[in-house]
Amino acid sequence: MGIELVPDLAIAADTVLQVGYEPGAPTDVINSLTNPAIILGALAGGAFGAALGALPAFIFTGFLVIGGSLGGGGFGVDVGFGPVFGPHISFAGGVAAAGYAANKGYMESGFDYHNAKDIGFALGSKPDILAVGAVFGIFGVLIEQLSRQLAVPVDPIPVSIVISAIVVRAVFGYSIIGKVSDKANGYFDMGPFERGEMRDPGEVKGDGGKESEDRLAVEPWLPNMYKWSHVAAIGFFTGLAAGVITYNMISGGHGLIAVFAGFGISAASLLFLNLGVDRIPVTHHMTLAGATAFLSTWEEGILMLTDLSAADLTAPLAFGAAPALLFGAVFGLFSALVGEASQRVFYAHSDTHFDPPAAAIVVWTLVIGLLVVAGLLNWGVWIPGTGI
């Protein structure tokens, strides 16, 4: 099994290994983590995310992925998900830097929530802030490469982002899971936000600009997109749209790289959110789910992208285009709901950013990976260890 910074997608479409799951080897981990290009790239990328802010750095990833997927060669996707610009490096580094800067009282960004959640705020060139981003960039790539090279059947990038967010809280003295206000009926209750209720004095820590009583009792990740019906609807339709985009691109000869086009479009669209446009939805976890689940079950697409025959596809979850598109839409909906559940538990009552899309991608990629391991799916498309 060869060492890879990110999946070699252009080659993967033309390579037949096996149908099912193939585990990695410990030697692959050692070789990847002693590669100076990976470590030094992560060092620079974490500092880059700290300087720009986590969200602007992720938007940059989105544009790279759009260019790579639409161009068909894959270079932009490899760069967007690799050392320097990969979200587990630049985005996670930016999240860590915001947690550090808010804890030191540097930010006072005017954000409605705790400043450590303000991932759209650029933190500039202060050396200690850049150093925090750089350190977490290295940490992010270490976790990602460990998961990837061992071929754990889950997307290693959001695994790294989730673990990094938890470590930020532990290192800089924030509550790991947050404190539910007495005004809320448990983690899932968004009612105090709707009523505009505030925290009690001394209930939670301030951020240099706001005291506890200046903070909302519940801080939903997206104030315009937290109702279950709204989240389910956007998840279904964006998952379906991403599947259709993938179908059209692969039918037109773009190859396996097309599966990331919807993700790139969703990530790049966050430019408008960062610019303050109201009610922009966050959908990259939904579009990636829709496209991946569609392509994992579209029988004709699998045959187009590999050297296999129909007789080689023995798993039961293999469909024509229309059922596969609906399968993708359902996974888009599933990802949206998982993301919403994770924000209610890990974001709305906490002080720092925890990324609901990353948590959602961890869950649904693990589901697809386990379906491959169980023999119910023929492949997991790009998920480590599940290719054909």
TrEMBL record:
Keyword Magnesium assigned: no
Annotated ranges, domain DUF7973: 32-384
Pfam families noted in UniProt: DUF7973
Superkingdom, taxonomy of origin: Archaea
Transmembrane segments: 37-66, 129-147, 159-177, 231-250, 256-275, 317-338, 359-382
Keywords per UniProt: Membrane, Transmembrane, Transmembrane helix
Protein name from the UniProt record: DUF7973 domain-containing protein
